[in-house]
Amino acid sequence: MKKKKYAVVIATYGEVEKLTLRNLWPSSRRIVKVITRQIVKVPKLLIYFIADYRSTRHYIDWRLHNYESTLVETNRIQTGLIASRLRKSDHPVFSSVDVEIKEAYYFVPPYLEDTLEELRETYDGVVVVPMIPVESAFSCGVACQMISDVYADKRFEKVRVLNKLWQDPELHRIYIDYLFQRVDRGYILKGSKTGLVLVIHGTLVRDRAGNPPRVFTGLDETSAFFEAIKKRITSDPRNVFHEIRQGCMNHSAGGQWTDDTIEKALEEFRADGYDSVVMFPYGFFADNSETEYEAQTLLDKSSIAYKQYIRCINGSPDFAGWLSGRIVAELNTLNNLQNTFESLECCKTNAS
C-alpha cells in the first residue's frame, strides 16, 4: 500500500532576523491587518501609517540598544529538533505515512498561508503546531483562520491543529525542571526574600465600551495556566521562592487589558521588601522581542538588588521530545480520521 504524505508545520509569529526598515515594514503591516484590526477598527488608509510608524519606532529603539530578534532562529532550531525526534520514532503510524517537517510564520517569510497553499495540492494531510501554549484569537486563532481560508470545506479532513498544550501535566513538569535547573541559587539566594515573575502575553479583558471582547481572548485559560504552574512550583521541594506573581505583557489598543503586568509585579515585590527576583517567560515557547528585550529590560531597570532572567524553554531537548510526542499522536489521529472517511466513501460507492 502506498504511504500517505503528511507535513508538520511548526508555526509562530516570526520577527525580522535582519533589522532593516525594508524588512520591518511588511511585517508591521501584516501585524496591523491580522491582529490589531481584531480589537480596533482601523481604516485601510491608516494601516500603512500605523504600521510604518511602528516599524520606525522599533527600528530606532532596537538599533540604539543593539537588539536583534532570535525568534526565527530559535523556531528553526526547534523545528530541527522535532524533525530529528520524528525520524527516530518507531510509532506504528510511520508505517502508513511519510512526514516532512516545515517552519512557517504569520508575519515574516515563509508565510504560513503560502506554505499551506503549497501543501494543499501535494500532501494528503497537515498538522499545524502553533508555538505558543495558550490559545486565543491573537495566537493560534491566526493559524486557524489561515487554515480555514486555504482549505475551506476540506479543513477537517486534511488538517489538524495542536491545541490545549497548556493543560498538559507533562509540559508543567518539563517547565518546573527547566526552571529549577537554571536558577542561580548562589546568586539569587544572597537576598533575604526571593520572588518569581512568570511572564505571559496579556489579553484584552474589556473593549473600549466596557464590554467583554467579541473575540476569544484566552483570558480564563491564561489564569488557569498560571495557577497550575504556580501550584507545581510551590509544592516542589526545590522551591526557593517566597511568592510567585504573574507578569503580563499588554498592548495599549482596544480597551482594558489584564491588570497583572510585569511592572505591577516588580513594584509589589519591591514594596513588600523583596531584594531578589527571578523572571521566567512561561507563556512563550521561544524568546522574542517581548521577552528577551522588553521584559528583561523591565527587570534590569528594577531597583531590586538581585535579578535573574531565565530564558524561554527554547531548544530544550526535553521540550522537543514532549512536543514530538504530541505531534505523533496528532498524526495518528489524522490518519485514523482519514481512514474512516475513506471507508465511509467506499461504503457509499458500493451501496450506489
Automatic annotation (TrEMBL):
SUPFAM superfamilies: Chelatase (SSF53800). The keyword DNA damage does not apply. It comes from the Bacteria. It catalyses: Fe-coproporphyrin III + 2 H(+) = coproporphyrin III + Fe(2+). Gene3D superfamilies: 3.40.50.1400. GO terms for biological process: heme biosynthetic process. Its EC number is 4.99.1.9. Pathway: Porphyrin-containing compound metabolism; protoheme biosynthesis. Pfam families: Ferrochelatase. Keywords: Heme biosynthesis, Iron, Lyase, Porphyrin biosynthesis. One of its GO terms (molecular function) is ferrochelatase activity. The keyword Iron applies. It is an enzyme of class 4 (lyase). Belongs to the ferrochelatase family. This is coproporphyrin ferrochelatase. It comes from Prosthecochloris aestuarii (strain DSM 271 / SK 413).
